[in-house]
């Protein structure tokens, strides 16, 4: 699949590694930085979604998305992302993603509003009343050279999932993130708790990005060391 990820905000919290390991499937090991696991809440706009040789359809190919993710080492020894949930505002892509990518997509009422440097994200799950994510972020100065922790949190090019009881992986190919600093103005969310985690403590690390163009490969079975 080809797609663009636009107007992103990365919100990241530290978690005890054991707490995150407890929500992972067998075969994945939580990836840590300075001994801690990290969990991300990432709202953005998905745009230009299409299969190879197929044009993007305007209504179906552009919609808000919010994912809850953490960072793992697969049985092949490679670092990647494990999604606890992915909220999307279009039902058809949610159904297709469930069938083709076995990812935990959730159909939600969502919006992304960009007003100068302020980005406002809204999310309400249709079939899970009360599950929500409202965030307002102010975009800050560019980050010319990401720090090691910023690289750890954002330079991830591998996705893991489980299909028919087997661990699989896909590659997400894209260039470096054009990262900026960010300021969280308000946040009301319980999507992390819906993923089986405790309510985060303290404020998150905040980064923003105009986005990247992405090519996501098909799934491949993962074996130990391969």
UniProtKB/TrEMBL annotation:
Domain of life: Bacteria
InterPro entries in the record: ADC_dom_sf, DUF2071
Membrane-spanning segments: none
Protein name: DUF2071 domain-containing protein
One protein family per Pfam: DUF2071
